[in-house]
Amino acid sequence: MIPIARPLIDEDEKEAVLEVLDSGHIAQGPKVREFEERFAELCGVKYAIATTSGTSALHVALLAHEIGPGDEVITSPFSFIASANCALFVSARPVFADIEAEFFTIDPDEISKRVTSKTKAILPIHLYGQPCDMNAINQIAQKHDLLILEDACQAHGATYQGLPVGSFGTACFSFYPTKNITTIEGGMITTDDAEIAERARLIRDHGSPQRYEHIVLGYNLRMNDVQAAIGLVQLPKLQEWNSKRQANAAYLTAELSKIEGIMPPKIREGSQHVFHQYTIRINDRDKAAQKLREKGIGVGVHYPSPIHKQPLYQELGYHDSLPLSEIASKEVLSLPVHPSLTKADLDQIVEAISTI
Ligand SMILES: Cc1ncc(COP(=O)(O)O)c(C=O)c1O
Description:
The protein is α/β, with parallel strands linked by helices. Helices cover 39% and strands 14% of the residues. It is built from 13 helices and 13 strands. The strands form three sheets. The chain has a seven-stranded mixed beta sheet, sandwiched between helices. It has a three-stranded antiparallel beta sheet with strand order 7-6-11, with no helix packed on it. Strands 10-12-13 form a three-stranded antiparallel beta sheet. Strand 4 (119-123), helix 6 (134-144) and strand 5 (147-151) form a beta-alpha-beta unit. Helix 2 packs parallel to helix 8 (225-234) and helix 3 crosses helix 4 (82-89). The chain starts with 10 loop residues before the first helix and ends with a helix. Pyridoxal-5'-phosphate binds at residues 53-55, 79-80, 82-83, 125, 151, 153-154, 174, 176, 187. Pyridoxal-5'-phosphate is lined by residues 53-55, 79-80, 82-83, 125, 151, 153-154, 174, 176, 187.
């Protein structure tokens, strides 16, 4: 079976973990601080705050921006559930704007239609590693004085018109094992705003600027030094791994473009798409997925239901019609694109698709 994702853990990650375990300092400490500094450099921002997951990074980021009851956050329904749930965590209301059919990312025109006096933030998601249309989103944010909270959980190292994702406002990343780099579980908030960074650090750690002093309501959402040590070894490899993903994607696109009934992913002009997922549109998706699995190709569906159609959101009274997201959820199929694929693997994937 060619897996849909494969975490790359080598001897140097293992050595880094053992070094931390032997050091006696295994909770949040110097490795986390160093990982935050290196990650801030990647995103070209002043501050990075590590957390336990992408989900907790989103939660902390919204709390740090004091988004709460009565506030609306405009986001895409075509994502992993955490992108919208973070608004619910703080008793704000996620408002869904449909996607651009070509890129699967939030459509700025649809955002504009949903801005109200309650809107506090736009939460664009750089889905599959593809940056959103940030110029248009920035313009809307400026016009209506809104925050931008990027969900960059799938887009480490991606750029939009030369600028790194994670540098357009406050942003959140995930280091889950399938992501372009991993810390097993883990997350990161990036920002240029000193006050937000400070508040995020407090919220992540019981609202505590020093031991047993608690000035705001906080949680325990700290990354530990074992995780950060893995991240520090992975981070310098990101560029090379992203290049391999891009080369694999280019090969698949060249070959799959020859096959009728398949629409390979498009790359937004001026962007570096880092192909966390390589996602095609295909007719009769579920049957295709089953056949490919039978042929030994690990495929994924990201995502089989848009968020507003999830039972949780139906229960909350979401009855929006967001046709492009609804169609996409029936047509998308992710193929393996990870850096450890060989040319033979890529050819096997193409051969399998051409014969279903
Ligand atoms: C777009 C998006 N947002 C948020 C998350 C949440 O990240 P985590 O799984 O690290 O909590 C993910 C993870 O899959 C994601 O893909």
